[in-house]
């Protein structure tokens, strides 16, 4: 193999990987979640918030984008501590 190629027994180091793979790494929590439930809840919360913002807090459009019924979206928001802006 040419220069920079992998050979049997060689290791893939961070500098071998594309920079876009590391986007958002600095934004990850300093203390990892202690349970899968905590990690999943945090991810769901951020994902739903992003979809709400993309849809300008229109609940019907957001629920459709998430593949949920609107009532289920409201329940999820309540369980994750997401309140609609006034």
Descriptive notes:
This protein is mainly alpha-helical. It has a domain at 34-80: Arc Repressor Mutant, subunit A, CATH 1.10.10.60. Helices cover 43% and strands 0% of the residues. It has three helices and no strands. The chain has helices spanning 36-54, 59-66, 70-79. The longest helix has 19 residues, at 36-54. The protein is elongated and about 55 Å long. The mean pLDDT is 84.
Topology record:
Elements: H1 36-54, H2 59-66, H3 70-79
Helix pairs in contact: 1-2, 2-3
Keywords:
elongated; 86 residues; Arc Repressor Mutant, subunit A; mainly alpha
Mean pLDDT: 84
Strand content: under 5%
Q: Total number of helical segments?
A: 3
Given helix and strand content, the structural type is mainly alpha
**Do you know the CATH architecture of the domain at 34-80?**
Orthogonal Bundle
* CATH class group of the domain at 34-80: Mainly Alpha
CATH topology of the domain at 34-80, anyone?
Arc Repressor Mutant, subunit A
Radius of gyration: 20 Å
Distance from N terminus to C terminus (CA atoms, Å) equals 61 Å
Bulk shape: elongated
- What is the share of helical residues? 40-55%
Work out the number of β strands.
Answer: 0
| Low-pLDDT stretches | none
Order of helices and strands: HHH
CATH homologous superfamily classification of the domain at 34-80: Homeodomain-like
Biggest sheet architecture: none
């Amino acid at each position: 193999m040419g220069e920079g190629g992998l050979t049997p027994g060689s290791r893939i180091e961070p500098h071998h990987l594309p920079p876009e793979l590391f986007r958002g790494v600095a934004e990850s929590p300093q203390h990892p979640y202690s349970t899968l439930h905590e990690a999943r809840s945090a991810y769901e919360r951020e994902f739903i918030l992003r979809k709400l913002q993309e849809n300008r807090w229109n609940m019907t459009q957001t629920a459709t984008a998430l593949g949920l019924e609107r009532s289920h979206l409201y329940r999820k928001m309540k369980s994750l501590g997401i309140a609609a802006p006034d």
